[in-house]
Design brief:
By secondary structure, the protein is of the alpha/beta class. The protein is built from ten helices and 16 strands. 27% of the residues lie in helices and 26% in strands. A six-stranded antiparallel sheet has the order 2-1-4-5-6-7, with helices on one face. Helix 1 runs antiparallel to helix 2, helix 1 (41-55) crosses helix 3 (147-157) and helix 5 packs antiparallel against helix 6 (255-267).
Length: 368
């Protein structure tokens, strides 16, 4: 059985995306969303977070956490009456599509007005099914024997958005976690310690691969020191190469180091635990230029087992990828646009300039 992958999305009316100018993005094993602050990259990331909430029956919680329906509708409900989303998945033999429409409701809520799936073999006409939701939550969250719904739900549930920006001493990635909370790495790295502990016990080759990358950017790092306490909690203690007796605390990692550790764990985990789609918002934040090169290598390695989507504005990071892996997100006339780069069209330019230099010269768009 071949693996279903996200092939394309279309978004209308969501946040900075105009209902009259949809954003359409095609995806490959690696997709780099490149754009300046305010271009709309984070809103596309937010769209995936919303999809994840719809599959878990937490759509209304997601909306309420953001504030009101006004936050989601482009320029508010006086201008935008609905949000539309279309997702196209395919494998070597099959096609699955999911479409939905959200509309505002009193008081300041969003409801799921309609849902539809299309499915079938690539060589035949697709079957169309209208889903029956209760308006508040998606039908994708319901128990069902329908194979297509279960496939789409599984893909979207295993589509994880990660952000490791907070690296303060009180941040999630520095905290202890219970050794049983280790099925997958959580979105903010809440269970980083227990997940790494599991990898060491069950997937030593992946664990050692993670250590090798950490040592590239932390020459003094030797290994983690996992010592679960009586209640089953483990912390991210570690040892350096200069002393076998001195156990260091997670607070003694620099901000850039702890972020890199989280990224390495996420991207170098085994196929058995890795999400179907990994989405990372500005992974380059706080990293040394050399660490950014290693980050790109880890992204390429992860893409052998999953799809990786990153949103970035790092010149150093985009230079590590091919032009046709990059989609430029730009704010234009008050709304976001998306344009995938064409490697052949840029061939002449790329003989003399790097991608970041072309971006800096505004040849690619996506500048402030």
């Amino acid at each position: 059985m071949t693996k279903d992958k996200l092939f394309e999305i279309s978004i209308k009316g969501y946040k900075s995306i105009s209902p009259d100018h949809p954003v359409e993005i095609m995806f490959d094993d690696i997709t780099v969303l490149l754009g300046a602050n305010g271009s709309g990259k984070s809103n596309i990331i937010s769209f995936f977070k919303m999809l994840n909430s719809m599959t878990s029956g937490e759509f209304q919680k997601f909306v309420e956490t953001a504030g009101t329906s006004q936050v989601f509708l482009h320029n508010g409900k006086k201008y935008t009456q609905k949000v539309e989303g279309k997702l196209h998945f395919k494998s070597e033999t099959h096609i699955n599509r999911y479409e939905f429409e959200l509309t505002p409701a009193t008081p300041d809520r969003l409801i799921i007005n309609s849902e539809k799936i299309e499915w079938g073999n690539k060589d035949r006409k697709l079957q169309v099914d209208l889903l029956e939701s209760n308006f508040k939550e998606s039908a994708l969250a319901n128990d069902t024997a329908d194979d297509t719904i279960r496939i789409i739900r599984k893909i979207l549930q295993r589509c994880k958005v990660y952000q490791f920006h907070d690296s303060s001493n009180e941040s999630h990635i520095r905290q202890s976690s219970h050794i049983d909370i280790n099925n997958f790495l959580q979105a903010k790295g809440n269970n980083l310690a227990s997940f790494l502990y599991r990898l060491k016990e069950e997937f030593p080759s992946n664990y050692n691969r993670i250590l090798s990358y950490i040592r590239l950017i932390m020459s003094q790092f030797k290994d983690f020191y996992f010592d679960p306490n009586g209640k089953g909690y483990v912390s991210l203690k570690w040892m350096d190469i200069f002393s076998n007796d001195n156990i260091l605390l997670p607070e003694q990692f620099s901000d850039g180091s702890i972020r890199f550790i989280a990224l390495a764990t996420l991207l170098l985990q085994p196929p058995e635990t890795i999400p179907n789609i990994i989405i990372i918002d500005e992974p380059e934040l706080g990293l040394h230029p050399f660490a950014i090169v290693q980050l790109a290598e880890m992204i390429k390695e992860a893409s052998k087992n999953t799809q990786v989507i990153i949103a970035t504005q790092s010149p150093g990071l985009v230079n590590e990828f091919e032009a046709d892996q990059i989609t430029v997100i730009e704010a234009e006339n008050g709304y976001s646009t998306a344009q995938r780069l064409d490697k052949e069209e840029l061939k002449g330019w790329l003989e003399h300039y790097s991608i970041s230099e072309l971006w800096d010269k505004n040849i690619l768009g996506g500048r402030p």
